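Below is one such record:
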Amino acid sequence: MPPTQENPIVIPPGFPPPIIPADDPVTPAKVTLGRDLFYATELSRDGQHSCGSCHILSASFCDPGNHWSFGVDGRHGPRNASCIVNEAYDTAFFWDGRAPSLEAQVPVPIYNPVELDNDSTTVIESLSKNVLYPPLFTLAFGDGAITMTRIAQAVASFERTMISGSSAYDQFREGDTSALSDAAKRGFALFTSSTTNCSACHSGVNFTDDAYHSTGLEFQYADEGREDVTHDPNDNGKFRTPTLRNIALTAPYMHDGRFNTLVQVLDQYNRGGFHNPTQDTLVRPLHLTQAQMEDIIAFLESLTDSSFVTRKDFSNPFN
């Protein structure tokens, strides 16, 4: 069922209502403005980058192909941009969870010197000079005042409409037993079994527990992860569990994009990590066979929602 002017958020069967703050209700006018702002190059210092530069629709709003995400002047940090699919259900944002809401998340890349590298005064001036925006702000908020708070609310409203839940797995979940191949069914059984415990962290309709885990990627993490936020050494190398929705489309994988394929990811987990001091006890050698790993990958591929990554109302309106 496509979105309508009255209902800009489409909730798939079996999904709960998304989290929407009382002070930022989702409205069609706000979503329209937020979509334009998501792709607006006025948000960047060089006028060439936008949120959509690192969050690509065809890759489920991930940054495909780049181990690190690149901002103005080719700068980059140590991480690959997080996927923003189904963020309407998340309770914290970024790999380290430093933003408590979508509204708090939106300005961070705008101000970050290795991302859009801009400031609020320049952003507001640039948008005010574009005849497109004052009328859109008026429709969304009742008057044409352009503020960073309103920019954040509009972009957050657009991002809350990015709900994916129409994959082959979802058809299977809704009762169509023919929707999954035999390999995918075996993979699903393994994924949810005590043998792998994958579903202990990749749980719920969004396949994430929204918690932080060290998965043993390194003996000592150069990127401190959650420790950057909490300043607790016990959080060293812990990162938010990413959603697995559309995972086959979102390579490279992990917070720093170190793995190019799902095979490499499963190999890492099958080995059980490097056993660093903060490694989660759930990460241990799995002793999976090649055939079992192929079945798990078949299940992961069944999470691809082709209708989501081709939705015109999510695409760049300026193209």
Summary: The chain has twelve helices and two strands. The longest helix spans residues 148-160. The chain has a mean pLDDT of 95. The radius of gyration is 20 Å.
